[in-house]
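Lab meeting prep.
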Amino acid sequence: MVNFKKRMNRPYIILHMISSVNGKILTEPWRHTRAWENVKDTFDEMYKSFETDGWICGRVTMEKDFSDETPQLITPDFEISGDYYVGDETAKSFAVAVDPSGKIGWTKNEIDGDHIIEILSNKVSNEYLYYLQRRKISYIISGKDSVDLVSAFQRLSELFPIKSLLLQGGGYLNGSMLNLGLVDELNILVLPITDLNEGPTSLELGNYRKLNMVNDLTLVSADAKKNGEVHLRYKTLNSKTIR
């Protein structure tokens, strides 16, 4: 078992993406390629090898790949108080959705056994909080008009048994978290394809435009696979924790 240590009172966060040579991350156009055929059956094995306590995605990615209903909103006959809610105190693995305004719909409080935690801003409605509570979906409210990611991930560490998380997009969430110093490690699997379609790359300019947008990295390993894909692993300079 990999031993992760919390740093700065937050989880250790690994950015893990699969990309084309030119950085694109939307995989639909690749489904007919030889490169995709060579790696598609190894994704689950690669994901499990990180042995983290859960994973993180932004709203667009969650809605596209995992949301299973339109939220059924009911006005509660009481005021929803507090800035967090724990829907399952026994959960050991987690799916974290960054959803500032509260838009994602869920029929269950887990994804493949991973308990759902919504990260919200104060723009969220009482109706949506009531919706989450009725489904026993956990949430943390952090930030006024947009999510305060630094505070949110500190709260994750305080409220849940989370030492490590896998960050898996989209590109704007990845870029925002990197610029805020919330990413400790980057693992990029580069497939031997180019993709000239419009779409995001692994790291896009998010809401934190005034921060340093150039980041030095330390190469940990570069592993060229037999079918042409390359697994690149970097640590960020702000990361002092050894994995």
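Slide two material, second protein:
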Amino acid sequence: IRRSLKFPDLAEEYAAMFKSLSLRPEHREPANWHLTMMRQSRSRYQAAGQRTGVPWHFIAAIHGLEASFNFRAHFHNGDFPLTSRTRQVPAGRPTVWLPPSDWENSTVDALRLMGFAGASDWSLARTLYRLEAFNGFGYRKIGRASPYLWSFSSHYVRGKFVADGTYSARARSQQCGTAVMLKLLDDAGEIALG
């Protein structure tokens, strides 16, 4: 894992890792659940995507990790309930909020806040870079594959931030990584990233 945070330095790494990614057999069942959840809610993800220009699969993958596909929680970080602003980082979002509001407005706010709304390059490498950026580059800074992308895959075994700034080499992510979710969609013919 390269420690650079610059996209041009990382594009080839993302593409190579995605191409060589394989799902760990012990994670087949929960991975399939993620695929089912993304398929079931595709129309909601597409609606948010139409408002922002962000691909539905990008939105679906983040929603899976941040909120376990719960449409009553904020897209930014999974804070619940959706009738209040976020409490965790980023706190106080959306800044314009008229409870009870809806998941789509929370999602649009998060995508705008991150600078993803209106972006034009959604190539595979750029998509993976943005997914990593959404969670932060803490893993890359210490030379580790981010479970936010690679958990459940051949590229990740263990190692996790268990609190802000606290990394444990023994902890293991129990969530399916976003790159793995995209690979599942790609393999199923739902999207074409390869």
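Talking points for slide two:
Residues 139 and 145 are 6 Å apart (CA to CA).
The two ends are 20 Å apart (CA to CA).
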